[in-house]
Amino acid sequence: QLQLVESGGGLVQPGGSLRLSCTASGFTPYAITWFRQAPGKEREGVSCINNRSGSTTYADSVKGRFTISGDNAKNTVYLQMNSLKPEDTADYYCAEVLVCDLKVRTVIKWGQGTQVTVSS
Description:
Blueprint: E1 3-7, E2 10-12, E3 18-25, E4 31-37, E5 44-50, E6 56-58, E7 66-71, E8 76-81, E9 90-97, E10 107-110, E11 114-118
Parallel strand pairs: 2-11
Antiparallel strand pairs: 1-3, 3-8, 4-5, 4-9, 5-6, 7-8, 9-10, 9-11
């Protein structure tokens, strides 16, 4: 079965850290984007990694706080999230994409999502 599975979400205090994982099974993604969707808001692209070149892209809202990385041997992409803020609270989804432009239109496969809550 071809699928993406996220893990690592949870509750964290402001200023804390979490690491999300996205593991592909049955295929090797060309590029992975992490998206997030807060209640009542549109889904937005957070960060992307091209698994062939290793190039990365970040949304301005997370630059300097989030780091995306990949382990090709494990077919897994990670999103290290530091200095978390309450506004980072959202459901986080990983997706295979055709282009690292942080746009939903380039998604070809979605994971099921993992919830991140930043609150004291």
